[in-house]
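To: structure desk
From: M.T.
Subject: fold request, one chain
Message: Could you run this one when you get a chance? Sequence is below, nothing fancy, just the single chain.
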Amino acid sequence: MSELVLRAHQTTIIDKLRAGFAAGNRAQVLYGPCAFGKTEVAISLMHAAAQKGRRSAIVLDRRVLCTQTSARLMKYRIDHGVMMAGSPMYRPDQKIQVCTAQTLEKRESFPAVDLLIVDEAHCMRKETVEFIANNPQVKVIGLSGSPFTKGMGSVYSSVESAVTIDQLVEQGWLIRPRVFIAREIDMSGAKKVAGEWSANETTKRGIQITGDIVAEWISKTHEIFGGPRKTIVFCSGVAHGEDLARKFGEAGYNFVSISYRDDDDYKTDVLAEFDKPDTSIHGIVATDILTKGFDQSDVMIGISARPFSKSFSSHVQQIGRVMRTHPGKDQAIWLDHSGNYLRFRNQWEDLCANGVQELDDGAEKTAKEPSDKEKEAAKCPSCGALWPAHSDKCTHCGHVRVRKSAVIEVAGEMLELGAAKKKEEYSFAYKRSFYAQLIGYAELYGQKPGSAYARYIAKFGMHPHMQKPEPEMPTPEVVRWVKSQQIAYFEAKKKARMAA
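Reply: Done. C-alpha cells follow.
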C-alpha cells in the first residue's frame, strides 16, 4: 500500500479548482498534459470530499480505465465502489464511485453525488453533458489533456492549468521526442466528412505506403537503438492495421493489430503481454484504442500513419503516448508518415509553451497544409529528422544545410546566413489583447468581422485558440501593423498587374 503524495503542480491545481468553485464556476476543466497526474488529483479531491461526508464519482469511458482507477484507489487504501457491468466491486453505498460511462448510460441514471469528475472530458458524451446541465447543484471537474472539442465552452465555464508540456520536460517528467519526417500518406483530393478525412480514404491511401513505414522503422530502430524497441503504430483503419502487422511479420518482427472488432479479453491479453519487460511483441498497431488509457511508459517509438485534417486533439493524444519517462529510457522517437506534425506544428509548439488558458468554443479547424517547399525545408534531406531551429546543421546526422547565395531557407522563411533568427515569443495575454484590438479595428472602420480572424493568423501564424474576446480600441501599434499589411497587399496586387 502507498500513501498519496501530490507534486507541487498537483496541489496548485487543486487550489485553483477550489478557488474557481468559490468564484462561482460550477463546472471547470482541469487541463493537464500527459504525465500531469490527473488521476491522482481526482483521487485526492474525491477522498477529501468523502472525509467531509460528501459523495463523489468519476466517470470513465472505457472498462480498462475504470479498472485502472479502482486499482489506484486500492493502492492508496481508499474505500470505493465500482459501477461497471460484471464488477465484483459494486458497492453503491460507498461515498466514492468509479463508473464507466456505458454502464451509467444503460442504467439511464447517474449516482447521487456532490462532486462529479469526468475523465477525457473532451469526448463530450451526450448523457454526461445532459446530467451536468440538469443538476446545477453538482460541482463538476472535467479532466482533459486536449480540451479542444466544439461545445466544451457551453458546458464548462472555465479551464484551469498549473504546468505546461515544456515545464514537465524540463522537470524530467516527460521526454521530448525526436521527430523524423518520413514519406507521407498522400491525401490530395481525398474526401472529407465534417472537415476530417474519411476513414475509408485514409485506409486506402495508407496501405499504399505500408512498405515505406516498415522500412523506415527497421532503419531507424537499428540505427538509433541497435535493434527493435517497443513501438506503437497509429494506423489509418482496420485494414491498414492488418496490412501493417502482416508486412512487419514478413520482415521478421512481431507486430499485433488490435481494433474495435476484437473482443475486450483479447485486447486485454495483448496489452498485458506487451506490458512485460521481456515481451515477445515488438509493436502494437491500432487506430484510436491507444489514444486513451494507454500509459505504458517504456514505449520508445511512435509511428504516426493516420492523417488528420483538423483533429489537433488526436495528434496531441497520440504523440503523448511516447513521451512518458521510464527507467533506462533516455529518448523517444516519432516517425511521422501522416504529415500531422508539420500540419499542427504551430499549434503543438504553442500548446507546449503556453498550455491552455481558455476553452475555444470555435473548436478545431482545418489546419493549413504546408507547401511541398515548406515540407522539404522542415526536414534534413539526409536523414529526415525535423530540422533544428536556428541552425544549419542536423542534430541527428550532422548534415550541413546547403547555403544558397547569402541566405538559407527555414520552413518557408528566409534567414540571413550567419544571422540568428530573432525569437519572438508572445504571451497569451498579448495575443488576446491584439486579437481584441483587431476586432475593434474592424468595427471602427466598418470592415467584415472575419478580417480580424484572418489578420490574427497573419500576425501569429496560427488560429486564435481562445474564445472570441470583446472588441478593444486599437493602439497605435496595432493600427500601424494593420496598415503595413494593407500596403503590402496593394503593392503585391500592383506588381501582379504589371507582370501580367
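Reply (cont.): The longest strand covers residues 139-144. Let me know if you need anything else for the meeting.
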